[in-house]
Amino acid sequence: MVLMNSKKIRLKMNSYNFKKNQSNIIFIISSLVLFTLMLFVEINNGRFETEDFKVYYSASKALVNSQQVYGVPFGLSTGFYKYSPFTLFIFAPFTILKYKIAAIIYFYIITFSLIFSILIIQQLFDNYLLKNKKKQILISFLILISILIHIVRDLHLGNTNMIIVFLLILALKSTLEKKEIISGLLIALAILTKPYFIVLVLPFLLYKKYKTVTSIVVSGIVLTLFTTLVLGFSRSYTLHMEWFQEMLRHSEYLYSPHTIFYLLEYYFGIVIPKTYTYPFFIVIVLLISLFFWFRNQTDNDTEKTLLFNYFVLMAIIPNLLITDVEHFIFSLPIIAILILYLKFYRNYYIIVLFIIAILMYGGNSTDLVGKGLTIKIKFWGFVGIGNLILISLVLYCSRRKNIKTNGNIKIKNPFTP
Question: How far apart, in whole angstroms, are the C-alpha atoms of residue 220 and residue 45?
Answer without folding.
Answer: 42
